[in-house]
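Ticket 4471: requesting a sanity check on a complex prediction with adenosine-5'-diphosphate. Repro inputs:
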Amino acid sequence: MEVIYFYSLCCENVVHSSKYNLKEEIVVKNEEVMATPPSNLNYKQLFKKLPRGIVLVNQHDHIIYANSRGAFLLDFAEAKNLIETPAHELDKSIELYAEQGKQISFGAIFSFERVKKIDRDDLFRIYFPRTKKERWLSIVSQRVEQEEGDFALFSIVDLTQQKKSEKALQFINQISVNLSRSTDYIQQLQHFANQIVPQFADWCVVDMLNNEGELQNVAMAHTDSTKLESVKRMRSKYPPDSTNKTVGVWGAIYQGKSDFQSVVTKDSLQKVIKVPAVRRHLLELGLRSLITVPLIARGKTMGAVTFVWSDSEKNFDAFDLEFFETVCQRVALIIDNARLLDQAQREIELQKEIQYLLIEKEMTLELALRAGNMGVWDWDLKTNQLRWSEGLERLHGLNRGEFQGTLKHFTQLVHSQDLKRVSTAIEKAIETKSNFEQEFRIVQPSKAIRWMIGKGRVFLDEKGNPGRMVGIGIDITERRIAEESLKQSEQKFKSVFETSMDGIVITDGTGKILDANDSAVALFHLTKASLITQHLSSLIDVQTEKDFEKQWAAIQKQGKSRGEFELRTDEGATYIEYQASAEIFPNQTLLMLRDITERKAEQQRQEHFLGIASHELKNPLASIKAFVQLLRRYLKHVEDEKAHQYLEKVDNKVDALAHLINDLLDITRIKQGKLEFFYEFFDLDQLIRDAIEDIRVTSKLHPIRYTGLPNTEVMADKNRISQVIQNIIRNAMKYSPEGETVKVSLKKNDNNLTVAIKDQGYGIPSSDLKKLFQLYYRGQNYKVNNITGLGVGLYISSQIVKQHGGKIWVKSTEGKGSTFYFTLPLRRF
Ligand code: ADP
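Returned structure tokens:
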């Protein structure tokens, strides 16, 4: 009976405990409980075998029996030890907590008094300070009545795993919810690591593989923030060793399974970490238990999570491994989803972008097509059908639909001289499955010739053979015309360059000769090879280098310039006249050179002749003048009006002739640098008055008004200055209608005396103003065309004034008159 009771009690307990879903429990059916047990049943043996702890306590609260499972669950090595220990002693080695967390003494639980007849089923958390282990135990207690004395029976079931499972499940659910809140997976992983610490580990490190297959630390958490920094520093300095493919982070990734080291020792660490400094550091950080779990989703390893116990002095067990694996599986799935979502979103973005680009391209194409210089073609190589856009037909001068859709029709439109080249290029493109590009001429039905550029691409069919060719045709006639005219002008220039009688030299910006035509080569009396690369300055006979620099600077500054230089060749001096254009090509100067040695010699001969002739003329003229004056004096008392008139005229004409001859003589003197000056002090005001008087004697047709200035002593050549004044006044009268007044004035400032001669005559066109003082220049005004002159007076005047250190200029308005000015410096020496 007693036996049956025990047996049934145990079995009921089993049933009872099933509320905690203990899978490992033996489930015994109730009918069997009621069945008669075999008479030879050994109960102690039965207790021993039961997968639960059994503890019996007598009325004096002494443990009278415990099976080995019971002793194990209460952290005793043997049942014997438990039996011998008084209940209150147990409180020292076991801390017992009620489910709600309140600490209870061990004796209070395993007490006979507490156990009533009715079963109690309590759940306790038991902590063993010695081993730092924790266990959840379900203790079912019941009073057992016996003839020899009642006792209390405690049936103990270990629910630790289940409790852990519950906690883990709760955590996993919580993590799933939290992670799903964010779509940034790095943020998610950091969040995950934060949740792991400190409940499930002291550190948690998450490493992910990037696209290049490199490991990147993306999240890290540690119970101790200062140690976190230290771990981070160490990790960045010594990343996990990728050559170690069996253990550690890379081991977990390569193997696709967790690396679990429940107890990390110096030796075990040596296998994972090769660098001694890192090993030392890890041990200093208190590393004692480690699990690295790979993050795998859809068969692909994405990274790994490392969990570490250090400061808490705990060690992971098989359950923890299973727990972390479950958690990591879930995390991997969530991260994979987040990444997929991210990727999908990026793809959508990309699609949008592509679509945008396509639209943009389409629009560009459409614009180009609309601009009218482009058309599209599409050639089906199988059916040989060639389709043209409307634009392409238009470019070929065809109406819409006029193109017959065959290659033959196209070839008929291509210029016969270009056809072979185009056909070969098309054939080659198809043969080599490459692109086609050709420039060719087409002939429109109106016979107009246009230039086209054809571009095409071969598309392959499913078998990899050319199936289609698609391309564009662009009208490039304008471009070709521009190119052609450029080519022509280059050719023109080349032929001018080569055949010109003038020497042509092209230099760089500094004057170094880059090219020279044959005429130039001949001018320099050198070979072309020895001329090129020489510097112009080294060939020209200039007084100083500065002279060349001055001339060259003028060319570069004005862009265009002309001048002369002298060459010293073996054959003597050669005079060259040049006309230069700077920047004719970028940084290149062009010089047209002409040998003027002969012209110069001729000019010199003429000047020489002029000099001699004038001189020779002067003597007889002086005699004529003397005889005319003698004759006038001789006839002074003869009353013959006519004779006096004629003689005066002869006298005036002789004067005019003398003037002319003097002018010509002056020119030769100026040219030869022999114009002499005799300086003296005189009163300019008086000189002007005298000059005016002289003029009045011979010419009474124009009133002359003078506004003078007393005391104007000046150091100058009196006769020459008088010549200038008379020349300008005579001009003023010559180029004014009869009777118009000529106004002469003299002004003075600190440095100069200024003489102004103003007329109200025909004036001078502005285009003539600059050239007026050049030798032999005569004005182009039609009004003055009938007025005779040699065009030398102003030239001589300007030379005289310049030699005196003065200036000469004119202001004039055509039709209104002119004012000539000249200055003389007050202090010449
Ligand atoms: P010439 O008078 O003999 O032609 P000049 O050297 O004295 O030579 O003068 C040059 C040119 O300047 C003249 O041909 C004339 O066209 C112009 N000219 C000179 N003075 C005047 C003036 N006062 N009014 C208008 N034109 C003038």
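Notes from triage: Confidence is low (pLDDT under 50) at residues 1-35. Leaving this open until the requester confirms.
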